[in-house]
Amino acid sequence: MQVIRDYRPEPIPEEKQTEVISVAVAVYNSDAFLERAIESILNQTYRNLEVILVDDGSTDRCPEICDRYAKQDSRVRVIHKKNGGLFSSRNVGMEQATGTYLAFVDGDDWLEPEMYEKMLSALKDQEADLAVCQYKRIYRDGVVDRSTGRLVVMEGQEILERYLEEEDLLPIQNAAWNKLYKRSILGGLKFPPRWYEDMLYTIQLLNLPKRSVFLDQACYNYVCDRSTSIMNKGINPRIFTDLIPNLYDRSAYLRSIGRNDLALLQDYSLYKRLMLFYTQVVRSKDPEKQAHLADLAKRLREGKDRYPEIFAIPRANPNEYRKLKLFLLSPALYRAAMAVNDRFVLPARQKLRKRRKG
Q1: Going by CATH, does the domain composed of 2-223 fall within 3.40.50.720?
Q2: What is the pTM of this model?
Q3: Which of 164, 318, 325 is nearest to 253 (CA)?
Q4: Count of alpha carbons within 13 Å of 15, Cβ hemisphere only?
Q5: For 118-130, how does the pLDDT look when each residue is reduced to its tens digit (9 = 90+)?
C-alpha cells in the first residue's frame, strides 16, 4: 500500500475526455431531491457521460422529471420499470451501460462538480481499475467531512483486506455510489436479488481489480437522514431475511477464493452483529420478538465450535468473546446482565463523562 499525501488529481481537458462514464441512477419516489441529483451529474466537469435514469415504478413525480431531463440533454436515457427494488434498478442500469467506466448514484444524494474528473484522473494516473472516494455525511443539523487530501494506492486484494478491516481512515464502505471502475472487470457480476444488496456485491467487486485507489477527498454528498431508508429504521424482518444471509454469503465467498484469513475476520464481524441484533431485539417492541430471539440464539449456538479460532484473530476484542460465552452459558443470564448494564452501568458512565467535560 502506498500513500501519497496532499494529492491533487490532474484536470482532464474536455478534448481529452474521450472515454464514456456510464452513471446509473436508481430512482424511486424521491421527487423532492431528484432534480438536485440529476443536475449534479449533468454539471460534472467531466462531460462525456451516459446518464441512465432507472425509474423503479415511482408513484410520485419522478417519472415526469426523468423524462424531462431526457428531452433536455442527449446524454440522459430513461428506463421505466415495474417496482423491483434497488438491486433490480442497479442491475438494469449495468445491463444498459455502454461506457468504459461505471458509476452509481442514489436519487436523493448529489455529487460535487469535479467528482468523476478527479476520480478518473487518479485512476488513470495510477493505472488502476477501480477508484473509491471519500464522501460528506449530510445530517439535518450539519455536515461531516473527514477528508485528508491523500491518495492511497492498493495492489490486488489489498483493498479487499482494508475494507474488511473497517478502518475509519479508509472508508471504502459497502456503498455502490462512492466508486468508479472499469466496466470490463465485472464479468458477469450483478447485485444479488435481495435487500442490503451492496454487502455481497462490494466484497466480490473488490476482489477484481489488479490495482485500486482511494481518493481521500469528499466528492459525494450522502444524505444520512433518509426517513425512508431501511438502514435508518430499527429491527425489521429484512435483517433476518436479507441482511444476515448476506453476512453468511460473504464468509462463504471469501473461503471460495482461498482467503480463510479474511473469512475469519468476516465471521468475527458476523457473530458480533448477531449479538448486537439479539440485544436490539431484547430491547425492542418487535412483534416477532420471541421468534427472532430464537432464530438468533440458534445461529449463535451453531457457531460454537468455531469460536476459539474466530476470536483468536488479532482484531478480536476479548470482551466480545466474554459476552458470547455468557450467552452460550445462559441466554437468560445474559439478558439479566444486559438489564443491569442498561439500568446502572451505562447511566453511571454517562454521569462520569459529564463530570469530566464539566
Answers
A1: no
A2: 0.89
A3: 164
A4: 0
A5: 999 999 999 999 9
